[in-house]
Amino acid sequence: MCKSRFFRAILSVCLLLAAQVSFVSCDRGEGVELLVGAAMSLRDVTVDLAAAYNAANPYVTLTFTYASSGALQNQIMEGAPIDVFMSAAALQMRNLEGQGLILGEGRNLVTNRVALIVPSGSQAEISGFADAADDSIQLIGLGDPYAMPIGTFARDIFMALGIADEVYERAVLASEVRQLLTWVELGEVDAGVVFMTDAITTDRVRVVEVADGALHTPSVNPVGIIAASPHATEAQSFVDFLFSDEARAIFERHGFSMYQ
Fold first, then answer.
1. Three-state SS for 203?
2. Is 170 a domain residue?
């Protein structure tokens, strides 16, 4: 009888401890996976951001899907199970907000710069965006202005300089910014317009000029939580981290500036 009571008591304690462990694990979000839709220009920095975040939050798995901001916007509109959207421009975030697909509103996170680049060994006599219509440039790689922010920024710049018609006569349009970078690296085009953060990832291109910000719409990267996300709490935790001092140091190391 005594032994029976003793074993029942031990069993009760074990069950109580098991229940407490289960509660703590659930409270910490054990096993949660967040799908983050990020603009291709954020690919390198998000690798470091994820490593830093996971060091403090090992129970959250961050999975990234990369594409142009326009493509990601369309995927979200079509119901893709994305939890967090990191855009390369404000327009795509505003479009999603207008359809009620963003929880609350997106927040401006970082800013980027727009650069004109040429292959590192180029002998072309080009000193800036204003020379993009010169005969020394036979082909220039640009983003599709209707599909990706870097394309929109490039169009803004060339329109402001009054040379858009001449430039687009010799333009080859890409669907994402890393494709542009590769074209220039390989010398398949004489010049290209990319984000500065992409240009600094390789020594196979040379930056000719960084565009005056007054020539294009602001290059701002906002972040927002998708309204349909089943993991809004964990998504908010990740977004909050993106605004931390630790994340700031990572962004700045990759060439971004925090939004002021």
1. coil
2. yes
Q: Which residues pair with 34 in a beta bridge?
A: 62
What's the predicted TM-score (pTM) here? 0.85
Distance CA 234, CA 35 (A): 11
In a shared domain, residues 180 and 145: yes
Same domain, 106 and 224: yes
pLDDT tens digit sequence for 175-209: 888 999 999 999 999 999 999 999 999 999 999 99
Would residue 65 count as lying in a domain? yes
Q: Cβ contacts of residue 241 below 8 Å, gap of 6+?
A: 49, 52, 53, 57, 247
Nearest to 61 by CA among 72, 51, 69: 51
Cα(60)–Cα(194) distance, rounded to whole angstroms? Answer: 32
Give the burial class of 64: count Cβ atoms within 10 A of its Cβ; 0-12 exposed, 13-18 middle, 19 or more buried.
Answer: middle
Residue ranges in the chain whose pLDDT is less than 70: 1-30
Residue 28 buriedness (CB in 10 A; 0-12 / 13-18 / 19+): middle
Q: Judge residue 6's burial from the number of C-beta atoms within 10 Å of its C-beta, 0-12 exposed, 13-18 middle, 19 or more buried.
A: exposed
Quote the domain boundaries for residue 170: 114-215
Q: How far apart are CA 54 and CA 164, in angstroms?
A: 45
Query: Assign residue 29 a region: left if phi > 0, alpha if psi is -120 to 50, beta otherwise?
Result: left
